[in-house]
Design a protein that fits this description.
With about 450 residues, the protein is an alpha+beta fold. Helix content is about 30%, strand content about 35%. The protein folds into two domains: about 150 residues, no CATH class; about 230 residues, 4-Layer Sandwich (Anthranilate synthase), CATH 3.60.120. A hairpin with a 3-residue loop joins β18 and β19. The protein starts with a strand and ends with a helix. It binds the ligand C=C(O[C@H]1C=CC=C(C(=O)O)[C@@H]1O)C(=O)O. It holds the Pfam family Chorismate_bind.
């Protein structure tokens, strides 16, 4: 597949200035500014919002990770910024699951890759909040950026520290794609491919369109997700005023910081019980099930093998990750990598992991394309941020949805291996809709 040179706005140099501001509602910040808008919050305590475009890139094709990296390296080749680390300029964005993604509804406005250096960034770490204004290109001057920062600061300081999220919009109806019969046929076909030896695992996904009683503000939806899923990575990408991709994913795809990569192999699911004893019983079932251990084990092996291309790998102990409504098997994996490694190199090496694709990768991708009758878009794909040093964090865009006015399309999938039962898999997929659906109903 050919690689398209990305469409870009301004190249470097980047001029950025920052100042500390009082804590302010990121929803009020984003609501007061035009698209594009971004938000990223991780369980480690970093929250970043970005609005407006100082510079941007889009890319598609097999080389899209490299295209974005090459553009970012040029952009950040000359950076005039010496403020605190928390407030440093970041590129925010993500990728579609497939490299040849063509944005059609509900993904209008979401290219196969898009990153933006926001004109205005609000970043909180611990109890400090920083405002950063960035400009890029030959017309970017320190004096101009300092004036813009003073204006932005005045605007931000008039915003409230809290903004109530308002009532849930209510759901008038839902439409699944595929329906249950078609799902059963798809899973049986996948099982036949596994039986024939063409496939070991495939993650089949589903989409659920929820029609709402009232339009939803995606920023409010994200805020409600924060309350129940603070231990997940919460993200919002709104390339235009009319659509936003958002979610609360438990899955870190990669963090690169100071030459160290952190990731996880997360797969295999059971529900939560009604009591601590029931929870523990279900967690035990997760730990003891050969089928689920195999489903997650292939993810561990694949991630570890792929990371060995980049450096020395350490695989931690397998544990159970307990979320509000579901539990998964999880193994932490880390790697010591060379100084020249960029987080996008790690993302390109890992995506898609068998937690969202399968094995062998090409056969799993073919099965997904032939089975799923909807567009994955940015679902199950890398979403996050990186900085001028190539450090950053990406999550896998799970437990996610595209919100557009009074309709929201949710996505969820499940790993199919030998012994999978189409009915059990259907029930597990429904659990994965709950994070977003609960906050709409
Ligand atoms: C594909 C999804 O979950 C992945 C991550 C954890 C558990 C999974 C599973 O049980 O199959 C999936 O691999 C999803 O949430 O849509």
């Amino acid at each position: 597949m050919s690689s398209l040179a990305g469409e870009t706005t301004a190249d470097g140099p980047v001029v950025a200035r920052s100042c500390r501001v009082a804590d302010v509602s990121y929803r009020a910040f984003l609501a007061a500014r035009d698209a594009p808008g971004f938000h990223w919050a991780d369980p480690d305590g970093l929250e970043v919002s970005g609005a407006g475009t100082a510079a941007a890139v889009t890319a598609s094709g097999e080389d899209r990770f490299a295209t974005v990296r090459a553009w970012a390296d040029d952009l950040f080749d000359a950076v005039d910024y010496d403020g605190p680390e928390a407030a440093r300029p970041r590129l925010l964005g993500g990728f579609a699951f497939f490299d040849d993604h063509e944005p059609g509804a509900p993904w209008t406005g979401f290219p196969a890759a898009q990153f933006v250096l926001p004109e205005c960034q609000l970043a909180s770490v611990g109890d400090e909040t920083w405002l950063t204004v960035a400009r890029a290109g030959e017309d970017a001057t320190a004096a101009g950026v300092e004036r813009a920062l003073a204006d932005a600061r005045e605007a931000v300081e008039s915003l409230p520290a809290m903004r109530p999220s308002g009532p849930r919009p209510g759901v008038s109806g839902t439409t699944p794609t595929p329906g249950r019969d078609e799902w059963t046929t798809g899973v049986r076909d996948a099982l036949a491919r596994i039986e024939a030896g063409d496939l070991r695992k495939v993650v089949l996904a589903t989409a659920l369109r929820a029609d709402l009683d009232a339009p939803v503000d995606p920023r409010d939806l994200l805020e409600r997700l924060r309350q129940r899923y603070s231990q997940c990575f919460r993200f919002l990408v709104a390339p235009t005023e009319s659509a936003a991709f958002l979610g609360a994913t438990p899955e870190r795809l990669a963090t690169l910081r100071d030459g160290r990569v952190e990731t996880v192999a997360l797969a295999g699911s059971v529900g939560r019980g009604d009591s601590p004893a029931e929870d523990a019983r279900l967690a035990e079932r997760l730990r003891e099930s050969d089928k689920l251990r195999h489903e997650q084990g292939v993810v561990v092996d694949t991630i570890a093998r792929r990371l060995e291309e980049l450096g020395e790998v350490a695989v931690g102990d397998r544990g159970v990750r307990t979320l509000s409504n579901i539990q998964h098997l999880e193994t932490p994996i880390s790697a010591a990598v060379g100084e020249e490694t960029h987080v996008l190199d790690v993302v390109a090496t890992l995506h898609p992991t068998p937690a969202v694709n399968g094995l062998p990768p090409a056969a799993a991708l073919d099965t997904i394309r032939e089975t799923e009758a909807f567009e994955r878009g940015w679902y199950a794909a890398p979403v996050g941020w990186f900085d001028a040093d190539g450090d950053g964090t990406f999550g896998v865009g799970l437990r996610s949805a595209v919100a557009s006015g009074d309709s929201v399309t949710l996505f969820a999938g499940n790993g199919i291996v030998a012994d999978s039962d189409p009915d059990d898999e259907w029930d597990e997929v429904q659990l994965k809709y709950r994070p977003v659906l609960d906050e709409l109903e």
